[in-house]
Specification:
The protein is mainly alpha-helical and 120 residues long. 46% of the residues lie in helices and 6% in strands.
Length: 120
């Protein structure tokens, strides 16, 4: 990578390592932050090549991935039971009569709503 004039420190940036390794920036960032359990040998090899790791450093990278791999399990699926809002929450939503009102969770699932929202 060519040296830029606006660099405060020496070395590669995350985005440059990702490009050299042939990975997306987001995936490389997840790996760098420790989510290495699902990384394949090819991915680890490309990272080692991009970073020019020596044999000991490469072995350490693969050891980290192996330690994270077998023990790590995929996230459990949530149960499919439907959410029942607390009665006071439903009363508050039903009190909104000027327009639709609803509650969502972090996954943007619709959890509860007033009659205008259901009609909408």
């Amino acid at each position: 990578m060519p040296a830029g004039a606006n660099r405060r420190v020496k070395g590669l940036r995350r985005s440059e390592v990702a490009v050299l390794a042939g990975l997306s920036f987001e995936y490389y960032t997840r790996l760098e932050r420790g989510a290495i359990s699902g990384a394949s040998g090819q991915v680890l090899e490309s990272i080692a090549r991009a970073l020019r790791l020596d044999d000991a450093e490469r072995a350490h990278l693969f050891d980290l991935a192996q330690a994270a791999g077998p023990a790590a399990r995929p996230p459990r699926r949530r149960s499919s039971k439907s959410y029942v809002p607390h009665q006071s929450l439903q009363w508050a939503l039903d009190a909104v009569t000027a327009g639709p009102a609803f509650v969502r969770n972090g996954r943007m699932d619709l959890l509860a709503g007033n009659p205008l929202m259901r009609a909408f």
